[in-house]
Q: What sequence folds into this?
C-alpha cells in the first residue's frame, strides 16, 4: 500500500491534466499528510427565568454547545411548568454528570464544560450549576405565589413613594440653595481694587448650573436605586435588579478602593508640595529683605530681588512637580502617559518663541541694559520704561501711547539710554535743527542755548551744549543736548514741546529762518558769513 501511493498520486495528476474539472479531487490526496486544525466550538449558556443555569463548552454525542443549551432550556421550562415543586438530583455517568428534575434528565455536564482557563474542574462546575438550578426552581415557585407577588408590589409602591419624597426634598433644597446664591452674589462680587474680574451675572449663572448638575446627579442615583429595588421584588426581573445593584456597588467599591490605595501616594505628593510652598515662602521673605535694602546677595541688589525671587519660585515648583509626579494617582496609566507625551510635544513645538522671549527678558534684566523709570530709545521707539517683564517691555511716550515690545525684539535692537549718564535724577534731552550756511554758526548756537535757558524743566547744571553733528551739502546740522529734570512720561513730552516752542520764538526774534535750503541753481551771491556778522546777536565774542 505504501509503495503504491506514489503511483496513485501520479495517476491522479495525469487525470487532472486531461480533465481539469476533476482536478479538485486531488486536494484530499495532497493534504492527507497535513493534520487538520480543530477549533473549539463557541460556548453557550442555558438561561431560565433570566438566570444563567449551565454553561456548555464542548460537544456531546455530536451536539454542539448551542443545541445543548437550547434543549436544556426547553426541558427545564417544561418540568418547572408541569411540576413547580420538583426536586433536583445529580447522577454520575461515564459521560459526566446527569442533571434530573424529578427523575427526568434535563441536561448533562461533561469534563469539557468546565472552565479550564479559570482552573475549574467538573466537580466545581457541577456544584455551581446545581446551586443555580435550585435557585431557578425556588424563584419559579415564588412567581406562582400570590402573596409573594403582592408583597413585591407593596414594596415597590413604598419605594416609589420614598423616591417621590426624596426627589421633592432634593428639588426644594436646590431652590433654597439657588435663593441663597442669588442673595450672596448681590452683596458680594469678585473685584480687585474696584475692578470687577468676573461679572456678577456670569458667576451666578455658573453657580446655578452647578446646583442643577448636582440635582440631576442626585436624582439619577435615586431613580437608579429605586429601579434596582423594584426589579428585585419579582422573580422574573430579580436578576436585572441584582445586576443594577451589583454594577452600582461594584463601581462604588472599585472607586473607593482606588481612593484608599491612592491615599498614601497622594499624601506623599501633598507633603512634597507643602515643602515646596514653605521653601518658596522662605525665599520670598529673604528676597523681600533684599528688596528693602536690608541685605545683599552678591550682584543681586534691591532691583533684581523681585525677578530672582520669581525665577527661584518657578524652579522650586518645577522640581516639586517632577518629584511628586510618580506619586500622583493615575500617573502610571497609559492615559496619563499619553497626555504627558501630548503636552510635551505641544510645548516642544509651540514654546520655542516663548523660550526665546523668556531668555531675552532674563538677559535684559540681569545685564541691566535699562531699568524701570529710565528714558530710552529702542530702535524707532522712544519713551519711559514702565515694565520690564519676562516676555515684554513696555514704554510710555507721554502722548497717550503705551508701546509693548517683545523682549527678543528689544534684545536685537540698538538701545539708547538717556537716563544712565545724567547727574542725579532726570534724563538727556536733545533736538536737532538744520540752518543754511549763510547764518553764522555762533549765532545759531547762542540762540539754541538761549531757548534752552527759557525752557522750564531743563537743568542748567550741567549746562546745555550745542554740537555740529554734520556738514551737509546745503546746511550744517546743529544738535542741542541738555539734561531734563522731569521723571514722568507726560512732563517729559511737555518739556520737549516747550523747548521746540522756545527755539521757534528765539529764531523769529533774531530774524533767522529755520529752513534747510536745497540746490536749484547757483545763488546770486555766495552763501557765506561776512566778518562783521560773525558774532550776530545774541552771539558774543569769547573773552
A:
Amino acid at each position: 500500500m505504501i509503495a503504491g501511493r506514489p503511483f496513485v498520486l501520479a495517476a491522479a495528476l495525469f487525470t487532472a491534466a486531461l480533465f481539469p474539472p476533476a482536478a479538485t479531487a486531488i486536494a484530499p490526496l495532497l493534504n492527507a499528510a497535513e493534520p487538520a486544525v480543530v477549533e473549539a466550538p463557541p460556548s453557550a449558556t442555558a438561561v431560565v427565568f433570566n438566570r444563567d443555569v449551565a454553561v456548555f463548552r464542548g460537544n456531546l454525542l455530536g451536539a454542539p454547545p448551542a443545541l445543548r443549551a437550547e434543549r436544556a432550556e426547553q426541558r427545564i421550562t417544561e418540568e418547572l411548568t408541569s411540576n413547580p415543586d420538583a426536586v433536583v438530583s445529580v447522577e454520575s455517568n461515564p459521560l459526566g454528570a446527569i442533571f434530573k428534575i424529578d427523575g427526568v434528565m434535563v441536561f448533562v455536564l461533561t469534563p469539557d464544560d468546565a472552565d479550564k482557563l479559570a482552573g475549574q474542574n467538573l466537580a466545581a462546575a457541577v456544584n455551581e450549576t446545581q446551586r443555580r438550578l435550585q435557585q431557578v426552581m425556588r424563584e419559579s415557585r415564588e412567581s406562582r405565589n400570590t402573596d409573594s407577588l403582592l408583597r413585591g408590589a407593596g414594596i415597590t409602591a413604598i419605594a416609589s413613594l420614598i423616591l417621590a419624597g426624596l426627589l421633592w426634598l432634593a428639588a426644594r433644597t436646590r431652590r433654597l440653595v439657588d435663593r441663597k446664591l442669588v442673595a450672596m452674589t448681590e452683596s458680594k462680587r469678585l473685584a480687585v481694587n474696584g475692578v470687577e474680574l468676573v461679572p456678577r451675572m456670569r458667576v451666578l449663572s455658573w453657580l446655578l448650573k452647578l446646583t442643577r448638575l448636582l440635582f440631576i446627579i442626585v436624582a439619577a442615583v435615586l431613580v437608579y436605586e429605586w429601579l434596582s429595588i423594584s426589579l428585585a421584588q419579582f422573580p422574573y426581573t430579580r436578576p436585572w435588579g441584582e445586576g443594577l445593584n451589583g454594577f452600582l456597588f461594584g463601581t462604588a467599591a472599585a472607586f473607593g478602593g482606588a481612593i484608599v490605595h491612592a491615599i498614601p501616594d497622594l499624601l506623599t505628593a501633598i507633603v512634597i508640595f507643602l515643602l515646596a510652598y514653605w521653601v518658596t515662602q522662605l525665599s520670598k521673605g529673604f528676597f523681600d529683605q533684599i528688596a528693602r535694602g536690608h541685605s545683599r546677595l552678591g550682584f543681586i541688589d534691591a532691583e533684581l530681588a523681585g525677578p530672582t525671587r520669581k525665577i527661584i519660585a518657578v524652579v522650586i515648583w518645577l522640581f516639586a512637580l517632577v518629584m511628586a509626579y510618580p506619586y500622583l494617582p493615575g500617573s502610571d496609566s497609559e492615559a496619563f502617559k499619553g497626555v504627558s507625551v501630548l503636552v510635551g510635544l505641544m510645548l516642544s513645538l509651540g514654546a520655542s518663541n516663548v523660550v526665546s522671549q523668556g531668555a531675552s527678558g532674563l538677559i535684559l534684566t540681569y545685564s541691566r541694559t535699562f531699568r524701570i523709570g529710565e528714558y530710552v530709545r529702542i530702535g524707532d521707539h522712544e519713551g519711559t520704561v514702565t515694565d520690564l517683564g519676562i516676555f515684554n517691555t513696555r514704554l510710555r511716550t507721554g502722548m497717550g501711547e503705551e508701546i509693548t515690545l517683545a523682549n527678543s525684539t528689544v534684545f536685537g535692537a540698538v538701545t539708547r539710554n538717556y537716563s544712565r549718564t545724567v547727574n542725579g535724577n532726570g534724563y538727556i534731552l536733545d533736538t536737532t535743527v538744520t540752518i543754511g550756511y549763510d547764518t553764522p554758526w555762533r549765532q545759531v548756537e547762542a540762540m539754541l542755548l538761549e531757548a534752552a535757558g527759557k525752557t522750564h524743566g531743563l537743568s542748567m547744571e550741567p549746562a546745555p551744549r550745542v554740537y555740529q553733528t554734520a556738514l551737509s551739502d546745503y546746511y550744517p546740522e546743529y544738535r542741542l543736548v541738555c539734561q531734563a529734570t522731569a521723571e514722568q512720561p507726560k512732563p517729559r513730552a511737555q518739556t520737549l514741546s516747550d523747548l521746540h516752542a522756545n527755539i521757534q520764538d528765539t529764531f523769529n526774534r533774531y530774524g533767522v529762518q529755520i529752513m534747510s535750503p536745497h540746490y536749484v541753481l547757483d545763488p546770486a551771491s555766495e552763501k557765506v558769513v561776512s566778518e562783521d556778522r560773525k558774532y550776530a546777536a545774541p552771539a558774543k565774542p569769547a573773552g
Observations:
- The CA atoms of residues 190 and 196 lie 6 Å apart.
- Confidence is low (pLDDT under 50) at residues 1-33.
- Residues 44-143 form one domain.
- DSSP finds 13 helices and 16 strands in the chain.
